[in-house]
Design goal:
mainly alpha, binds 4-fluoro-L-phenylalanine, Amino acid/polyamine transporter I, globular
């Protein structure tokens, strides 16, 4: 449940639809699903394995597994790439989660009552143009994360996730039914599932792979940190397949809801970018009876989904700081969340005051997003696949995977040794070339 809570978040409901929309839909979705199954699931299993074997923070678990396996000591760096990506992601994740928090109140106060495509876009633009409001909501979200992580992840988060995740799912199904009758469902279906290969670029393939990593929370140590709490008798393969299944389902259902509304409403484009969810959904809520209340509840659940994900971004670094530097839990939290908060201000300003400032052709927010999702995560995933595929003692692997059928074990090892490394490297090289040199 906690792993599902980490995986299901803004990446599914907010990011997947807009990245799929910017990349033309169909073919992107197919590549994304293939990446989840062929690369994501095997790498996620490998991450859990390291965490459960090491039973500490990701950085120290990797270190111990390296030592116990007698592997080259340079493998220790595997943990670092991921954990630093986690901090960078947390910085902008809190800003977007702040948007969701602010929409709870925009719904409740009636600011979004009766909006259409254009006026919903204007309300959203008004929020982005106001750094003070953005920083207020970002800070509130960060505070909520610190409160949970200070108290320890296991109790609070476990309970919350067990109740709230099914509720979120129920709400999504409700919205799906609604968008079926009120939006243009057929166009949404066609957009997401028709295989329009001509719209897909190598950069799009790289983004699909990055999105697969981002959405499953892999490559960052989050899943490794949770693996450290996983009971020995639980089957890693089955658990991860279930998490990946629900994660993909939430993404696809969110996409169907959002695009049904987009194609049924004047004034919203599928390629609208990061604002897509915040513009299209209020239009749907405005058109239904009791919509403001339902909208309010929906953004509460999105905020909770974001919360359970953000916590898993903070926990690995906090756990490490406590173990390695003997810092207390509260201070470790304040230090790291403070750092992510400060960096997040850069993302806040990139939507207004700094919108003209470019780094390698990106705004600050887009730069951090591209750097982490499309470069650091695939790199970290590649290292994890190679490490578990080649360097970890076979005895440990057999011990952790003794409840998996021999055929599945073979498939998993082939994927870690050959399929994932080759696919990640190829997509990585082609995608970067496409982005910067073509
Ligand atoms: N998987 C989360 C989402 O889809 O929103 C984001 C995330 C959480 C990424 C935790 C990484 C992580 F460690």
């Amino acid at each position: 449940m906690a792993a599902t809570g980490s995986a299901v978040g803004l990446g599914n409901i907010w990011k997947f639809p807009y990245v799929a929309g910017s990349n033309g839909g169909g073919a992107f979705v197919l590549v994304y699903l293939v990446c989840i199954l062929l690369i994501g699931v095997p790498v996620m299993m490998a991450e859990v394995l390291i965490g459960r074997r090491g039973r500490q923070s990701p950085i120290n678990s990797v270190r111990d597994v390296v030592l116990e396996s007698g592997a080259d000591s340079r493998w220790r760096h595997v943990g670092w790439v991921g954990v630093s990506a986690g901090m960078l992601i947390l910085s902008f994740y809190a800003v977007i989660a702040g948007w969701a928090l602010s929409y709870i109140f925009a719904m409740a106060s009636g600011e979004l009552a009766g909006v259409n495509g254009d006026s919903a876009a204007a309300v959203f633009a008004g929020l982005l143009a106001d750094p003070v409001r953005l920083i207020f909501w970002q800070s509130l979200f960060m505070l909520l994360c610190v409160l949970v992580v200070v108290g320890g992840v296991k109790k609070g988060l476990g309970v919350a996730v067990e109740i709230l995740m099914p509720l979120l799912f129920f709400m999504l199904l409700l919205l799906l039914g609604l968008s079926y009758f009120q939006g243009n469902f057929a166009a949404a279906w066609h957009f997401l599932f028709s295989f329009n290969i001509e719209l897909l670029t190598w950069r799009g393939v790289l983004e699909a792979m990055g999105q697969a990593f981002f959405t499953l929370s892999i490559g960052m140590g989050a899943i490794m940190a949770y693996g450290a709490y996983m009971p020995q008798k639980v089957n890693i393969g089955k658990t991860i397949l279930i998490v990946a299944f629900f994660d993909s389902l939430v993404a696809i259902v969110s996409g169907l809801i959002i695009f049904s509304i987009v194609f049924g409403t004047q004034g919203i484009e599928p390629s609208a970018g990061p604002g897509l969810m915040f513009i299209s959904l209020p239009v749907a809520f405005a058109n239904m009876s009791g919509g403001l209340l339902i909208g309010c509840a929906f953004f509460v659940l999105v905020s909770i989904a974001a919360w359970s994900s953000a916590i898993s971004l903070l926990e690995p670094c906090v756990a490490w700081l406590i173990e390695a530097k003997d810092v207390g839990r509260t201070n470790a939290n304040l230090l790291l969340a403070g750092f992510a908060w400060l960096l997040g201000i850069g993302s806040v300003l990139s939507f207004n005051v700094w919108s003209d400032i470019q780094l390698a052709g990106f705004t600050f927010f887009d730069f951090l997003d591209f750097l982490t999702t499309n470069i650091m995560l695939p790199l970290s995933g590649l290292l994890i696949a190679l490490f578990v595929g080649y360097a970890v003692k076979p005895e440990f692997i057999n011990l952790e995977m003794d409840d998996i059928s021999p055929i599945m074990l073979k498939v998993w090892r082939v994927s870690l040794r050959y399929i994932a490394p080759v696919a990640i490297s190829a997509v990585f090289v082609m995608g970067i070339y496409d982005k910067f040199f073509s």
